[in-house]
Structure formats: structure tokens, C-alpha cells
């Protein structure tokens, strides 16, 4: 199993639109092969930080997710709503990769 933690600092003025847009992305992601869970939340420690917690059956499933058409749409939509790039941590086989 592959775990992913993705954290995105949101612009305060775009927070509601960011969250609404991510909910649409989530609905499509949950239909993908190998998606066990995919949940987005506002951080309890920072109201402008959005945290996505994902679980995937395989790394191939996760890689396919990154290439999915709705992810391209999401990246383009959300790009102007962030104060910094998303940090992605992939956890598998006892190791953590950070992007």
C-alpha cells in the first residue's frame, strides 16, 4: 500500500474556491483504479493549509492518478490559489519520498 500526504498553502482570498474545486477533483479521484481513500481537509494547526491524505494499492495506480485528465484540470485551476508549491510525501515500504 502507498500512502501520500500532500500539503498546499492556500491564498486566504481563494480558500473557499480552492476547497470547492478540490471536492470536484476528489469525486473523480475516488473512481480511479487502486484508490483506497482520498480525503482533503483544512489543517487544524493552520487555517490556510490544505492537507490531502491518500491511500493507493500500488505505485503504478498512484502514477496513473498523476496523469489523469482531472488532475491536469485541478493543477491548472488551483495554480493561482496557492502561496507556494504543494509538498508531496509518498510513504511506502518503510521509506518516505518528498517532492
UniProtKB/TrEMBL annotation:
List the InterPro entries hit by this protein, alphabetically.
ABM_dom, AI-2_Isomerase_LsrG, Dimeric_a/b-barrel
What keywords would UniProt list here? Monooxygenase, Oxidoreductase
One example GO MF annotation: monooxygenase activity
The domain of life is Bacteria
Where does the record place the ABM domain? 2-90
* Name this polypeptide is given: Antibiotic biosynthesis monooxygenase
Organism this protein belongs to: Bradyrhizobium valentinum
UniProt lineage: Bacteria, Pseudomonadati, Pseudomonadota, Alphaproteobacteria, Hyphomicrobiales
Amino acid at each position: 500500500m502507498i500512502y501520500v500526504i500532500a500539503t498546499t498553502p492556500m491564498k486566504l482570498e481563494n480558500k473557499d474556491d480552492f476547497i470547492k474545486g478540490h471536492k470536484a477533483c476528489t469525486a473523480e479521484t475516488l473512481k480511479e483504479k487502486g484508490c483506497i481513500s482520498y480525503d482533503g481537509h483544512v489543517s487544524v494547526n493552520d487555517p490556510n493549509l490544505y492537507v490531502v491524505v491518500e491511500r493507493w494499492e500500488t505505485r503504478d495506480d498512484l502514477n496513473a492518478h498523476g496523469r489523469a485528465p482531472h488532475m491536469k484540470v485541478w493543477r491548472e485551476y488551483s495554480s493561482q490559489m496557492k502561496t507556494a508549491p504543494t509538498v508531496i510525501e509518498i510513504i511506502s515500504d518503510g521509506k518516505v519520498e518528498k517532492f
